[in-house]
Write a structure and sequence with these properties.
704 residues, alpha/beta, Mannitol-specific EII, Chain A, Rossmann fold, four-stranded parallel sheet, 27 helices, 58% helix
Length: 704
């Protein structure tokens, strides 16, 4: 009896998807979703289809968390890909007591568990769509409810699936025209993903979108990642053939004119990670809409008039422009800061006092002896001499000069994001003026916005045709630079410089008097949105202080790096010590997060945050605050703006930095484990029936 049921379907030659052993008729189960899922999982194991319930339930729960699987009409179709099965399998439960699976019209009494092997392609989606279409047929549903035996259920379901499968395999003569209807249904989409640093969000969003598209037969999607690891640009042919465009970005889309006239879905990059299926659905809908929102060729942000979810107001556009400026500024800071840190390691800390006066006086064939420099205590000699001192001066000079571009780059590329190329010159000029008047990075932010808005306004003016060709090359840079520089010299420079001085004095006072409080604030900011605007504000704040050479700024930089390392490391630890609490994908992300966290890439925690923000973010902020406070109290300092543990040899009090990271990591890991366990138990207790029994205990255990 068992052998034929498990064997192939003799009419199709394919493995049986449903067998009588996988059917439960009028099961007397509590009205609890977990109990139903557990019972169906047990059927799969008892029938020899699944290797164990733990993995199967973990994967089913993961899918259930993403969206409800209840359908109208008292039907539910929980489904997933899982390593617990080696072939597509279908389980059916007809319940004596209907159970809530999230359908708007009420609980379900017919439950279909659809399982596909992890590497099994799109088979379970085909089964799902075929079965879902059949369940719309009231006669078919009525026959399932009226069936008197498990074998009858198997015959009804297998007949529907076999009938649907036979349609594509029509007679050989129709083989050539058959693909035509399929081709017409395919929607061709292209997309761009980007984020301020181009390290993690960019590629996570691209992977999420392409992964979602791969699960569908009606969509083809190609993504251009505008990240720091290089851009694989979409070809003109791909863009021309596209029916719609998806922009999931945190900075302005580069060369947006290529997409002019295309229907567009424009969202922040985080939505590309957390809602890829919804974005693809919206893009498909936009491709056939009568009056869709379209890309404007001169809109550097990718925005145009559109629906309330995607339209960019001026506040959002300015925010994105600032994030673009930060994005372009970060490489200057990273390269300059690391060069300076290496120079101190090679030539000693006093190399900063002599490079400017002596670096051009010596060469590899004319090495310096100990060089003198003046301090408040009188003349001093450098600690080192010869090749080490000379290379230290070279590295420090290169790094110091790179750091001088920090504010102009921030200002110039903020203006670029608002006004495209005409904004670059006035933006850089404004940034240089900001440095000259002592307004620092605050002035750079202000001049970038002013230069961009002025350049954008001048572009909108209608001028005679003979003057139009001179506008982007001469008129706009000239006029916008005059207005921006004039505003700084005449009006804004002194107030902004005073604000910078006050900020610097406040930092120095806090780092001397209450360093732990400043560390808590920075730690909370670094973990609040994991690579978003709050995180980047704290990072910009820290890196801007490196150029001052102040000890307090070096402490702030170390605290920021340490706190930013906590979320990915804590989640990596949590998934290691309590693996059953996490889905398979989360466990895999946890393994990668060890390296990401050690390298100070906070975005390694993004997949966890996107799936469960209310539990992940607060628990990470707790550990980040602890780490920031400890780092400041231990007096750890970093002259390098990036690198994580790899730049610890360049730090003072590196042991304090390491202790702070480890303690914060453990605190956040414990916090997230406790929160997930407590909330999982509470959820199970809320769903459980009032009458306690042995049947209700198992689902609660499985949920945890």
């Amino acid at each position: 009896m068992t052998t034929p049921d498990h064997g192939p379907n003799t009419s199709t030659g394919e493995p049986r998807v449903l067998i009588p052993e996988l059917v439960s008729l009028d099961a007397d189960l509590p009205a609890d979703k977990e109990a139903v899922l557990t019972a169906l999982a047990d059927l799969q194991v008892d029938a020899g289809r699944a290797t164990g319930t733990d993995q199967l339930l973990a994967d089913i729960h993961d899918r259930e968390q993403k969206a409800a699987t209840g359908l109208p009409g008292g039907i539910a179709i929980p489904h997933c890909r899982t390593a617990a099965v080696s072939q597509p399998s279908l389980g059916v439960a007809r319940l004596a007591t209907a159970t809530d699976f999230g359908a708007e019209d009420g609980p379900a009494d017919l439950v279909f568990m659809i399982l596909a092997p992890e590497g099994g392609g799109k088979e379970h989606m085909k089964i799902l769509s075929t079965l879902a279409r059949s369940l719309v047929n009231k006669d078919f549903v009525a026959s399932l409810r009226a069936a008197g035996s498990r074998e009858e259920i198997v015959d009804l379901v297998s007949g529907v699936l076999a009938k649907k499968k036979k349609k594509p395999a029509a007679p050989a003569a129709a083989a050539e025209p058959a693909p035509e209807p399929e081709q017409k249904k395919i929607t061709r989409l292209v997309g761009v993903t980007s984020c301020p640093t181009g390290i993690a969000h960019t590629y996570m969003a691209a992977d999420a979108l392409t992964g979602a598209a791969d699960k569908r037969d009606d969509v083809e999607l190609v993504i251009e990642t505008q990240g720091s690891s290089g851009t694989e640009k979409l070809t003109k042919a791909q863009i021309d053939a596209a029916d719609a465009v998806i922009f999931a970005h945190g900075v302005a889309v580069r060369d947006i004119g290529r997409f002019a006239g295309k229907p567009v879905v424009d969202v922040p990059v985080q939505k590309g990670i957390s809602e890829p299926e919804e974005l693809i659905d919206r893009a498909v809908e936009a491709s056939t809409a009568d009056n869709p929102r379209r890309v404007s060729g001169d809109d550097s942000s990718g925005a145009d008039s559109g629906d309330e979810d995607t339209e960019l107001g001026w506040g959002r556009r300015i925010q994105q422009a600032v994030m673009t400026g930060v994005s372009y500024m970060v490489p200057f800071v990273a390269a300059g800061g690391l060069l300076m840190a290496i120079s101190f390691l090679i030539g000693g800390y006093d190399v900063a006092n002599v490079w400017e006066d002596h670096v051009t006086d010596y060469s590899l064939w004319n090495l310096p002896d100990h060089l003198s420099y003046q301090t408040d205590a009188g003349d001093q000699l450098t600690d080192r001499s010869g090749l080490l001192l000379y290379l230290g001066m070279v590295f420090n000079g290169a790094g110091s000069l790179a750091m001088t571009f920090l504010v102009p780059a921030l200002s110039g590329y903020t203006a670029y994001a608002l006004a495209d190329r005409p904004g670059i010159v006035p933006g850089f000029v404004g940034g240089a003026v900001s440095v000259a008047v002592g307004a620092g990075f605050l002035g750079g932010l202000v001049t970038g916005i002013i230069a961009g808005l002025v350049a954008l306004w001048i572009q909108s003016l209608k001028v005679p045709r003979w003057l139009a060709s001179m506008m982007p090359v001469v008129i706009i840079p000239l006029v916008a630079s005059l207005i921006t520089a004039g505003a700084m010299f005449l009006v804004l420079g002194r107030p902004l410089a005073a604000a910078m001085d006050g900020l610097q004095n406040w930092l120095t006072t806090m780092s001397d008097g209450a360093p732990w409080l400043l560390g808590i604030i920075l730690g909370l900011m670094m973990c609040a949105d994991l690579g978003g605007p709050i995180n980047k504000s704290a990072y910009l704040f820290a890196t801007a202080g490196l150029s001052t050479g102040d000890e307090a700024s070096f402490k702030i930089m170390a605290a920021v790096i340490a706190a930013g390392m906590v979320p990915p490391l804590a989640l990596a630890l949590a998934t290691t010590v309590r693996p059953k609490m996490w889905t398979k994908e989360e466990r895999e992300n946890g393994k990668a997060s060890w390296l990401l966290g050690a390298s100070f890439i906070s975005e390694g925690a993004i997949p966890f945050m996107a799936a469960d923000p209310l539990r992940i973010i607060p628990t990470m902020m707790v550990g980040g605050a602890v780490t920031g406070a400890l780092s400041m109290e231990f007096g750890a300092t970093s002259r390098a703006p990036h690198g994580g543990v790899w730049v610890m040899p360049l730090m003072d009090n590196w042991w304090g930095f390491l202790i702070a990271v480890i303690v914060g990591m453990i605190v956040s890991a414990i916090a997230v484990i406790i929160v997930k366990q407590v909330t999982a138990k509470n959820a199970a207790q809320e769903d459980a029936p009032t009458a306690a029994g042995s049947g209700a205990a198992e689902p609660e255990k499985a949920a945890v």
